[in-house]
Amino acid sequence: MSPDERKPSGGVTLPQRRAKGAAEAPLVPAGQAESREKKRREPEYIRIKTSPDRILMTLVLALVCIGSIMVFSASYPYAIAQNLDSYYYVRRQIIFVALGLLGMTFAMRVPYDKYKKFAPLVYGVAAVLLVVVLFIGKSEGEAKRWISIGGVFTIQPSEIMKIGLVLMLARYVGKYAEYMAKGSGLKLRFLYGTLYPAFIIFPACALVLLEKHLSGTVILFALGVIVLYIGGTSVPLTGLTYGAVCIAGAAAYILKNPYALKRLTTFTDENANKLAEKWQTTQGLYAIGSGGLFGLGLGQSRQKFSYVSQPQNDFIFTIWCEETGFIGAVAVIALFAALLFRGFTVARRAPDVFSSLTVYGIMSHITLQAILNIGVVTDTIPNTGISLPFFSYGGSSLIMLMVEMGIVLSVSRHSRQQKL
Q: Which pLDDT tens digit goes with each residue over 33-87?
């Protein structure tokens, strides 16, 4: 019997389910067997392979289509200002979408259990690329996050690490869930639920932090904690241990990188210069406020004309709010909420612990990144470079997001049950 199929002695957060075959009848004492036979048997179920979840696919395609339209609307003034063709950014975005669709289709057709086998490879490749980017990476501002390919495209290794981390932790928890359960004892819970997973989470976070990619580090750390929490780790043990490491690491990073401290002090300083330190945030807020209830109309934004810098990137949501208003903002947030709900539905119905945790991790990644992006552009949290999933202009980010959704759709093909 494989580790995924063992029943933990003390219960696990995720139900231990089988990918194939009918559910086993419960074991009963011999003396009760006769009386049980007289009772009506509970219905048994088998899993059947079906088509990918159509609702989930529709939500993904809707977000990608709206995002592509907004990339064009937000980017053409910036492209012209850079002496480029007005279609420059949207043309490239369409190429990224096409590549993403191919990646999603391929990932969707790969049997979900194969990802458990490939998890160490994905994690390892991402780690190697994160080391490589430190030496030959392309810099933008303080960050050094991209590897240029032929001077035409760039890849961001931290995007690959996000899915690599989720797959590795899902694989780990699927194997050692019984030792993380409540009944396994304090020592085993600490070792298997807190200490050993740290050797998966913290190296990934450290490599991304060396790129001076603080938001990417926060997302990776949060993903690791979320997957472990859903997998049944001890919240007090993991919270105290990881919390102490996180505080120490953040303090050391801020002390070594004055620009990070300046961002924090600027965020908390009500008298900060809005024409200098808070220019981007202030112009974004002007864009959001200008939208009113129904917006100025698609394509009619004024702030994208050299006020919000690079409006097709991290601050694209502000242009969407300006052009479609409060109604449009709520509609996009509702789409993300619906995507999360549908993804979690797939996770709850997943065939085993590994596939369930993988879907929970992927959906948490998308939701967390959307929340952080909207928090930044509304000046709710300090400004840091983080894209809005399916909306912001970019290649590796969009392609990897769609590959992740392909994995979720692959799991959804095995989530349907049928009575025997």
A: 444 444 444 445 556 678 899 999 999 999 999 999 999 999 999 999 889 999 9
3-class SS of residue 145: strand
- Reported as half-sphere exposure (CB side, CA atoms, 13 A), residue 19 has a value of 18
Q: How far apart are CA 359 and CA 53, in angstroms?
A: 13
CA 128 to chain CA centroid, Å, is 21
Say how many Å lie between the first and final Cα of the chain, rounded. 23
Contacting residues for 109 by C-beta, under 8 A, at least 6 apart:
410
Rounded Cα distance between 365 and 372, Å, is: 11
One-letter amino acid identity for 8?
P
Annotate 83-105 with b (16+ C-beta within 10 A) or e (fewer): eeeeebbbebbeebbebbbebbe
**Closest listed residue to residue 363, CA positions, set 127, 62, 59:** 59
pLDDT for res 4: 44
Distance CA 211, CA 257 (A): 12
The rounded distance, in Å, linking the Cα atoms of 182 and 254 is 37
Q: What is the Cα–Cα distance from 296 to 55, expressed in whole angstroms? A: 31
Q: Which tens digit of pLDDT belongs to each residue from 132-141? A: 998 887 766 6
Query: Tokens representing 141?
Result: 């501002």
The model's pLDDT over 239-257, given as tens digits with 9 standing for 90+, comes to 999 999 999 888 888 888 7
Alpha carbon separation from 326 to 74, 251, 290 (Å, rounded): 18, 38, 10
Taking CA 213 as the corner, what is the angle to CA 157 and CA 370, rounded to the nearest 5 degrees? 85
Tally the C-alpha atoms within 13 A of residue 272's C-alpha that lie toward its C-beta. Answer: 17
Q: Is the pTM of this model over 0.90?
A: no
DSSP class of residue 394 equals -
C-alpha span between 162 and 173 (Å, rounded): 17
Structure tokens that stand for 1 in this block: 């019997």
Q: How would you label 3-35 residue by residue, b for 16+ Cβ within 10 Å and e otherwise?
A: ebeeebeeebbbebbebeeeeeeeeeeeeeeee
Q: What are the residues whose beta carbons fall under 8 Å from the beta carbon of 145, sequence distance 6 or more?
A: 133, 137, 138, 156, 157, 158, 211, 213, 216
> Which residues, in sequence order, are CB contacts of 343 under 8 Å at separation 6+?
56, 359, 362, 363, 366, 408
106: Cβ–Cβ under 8 A, 6 or more apart, which residues? 403, 406
Strand ranges across the sheet with 143-149 = 138-140, 143-149, 153-155
Residues 6+ apart with CB under 8 A from 188: 179, 180
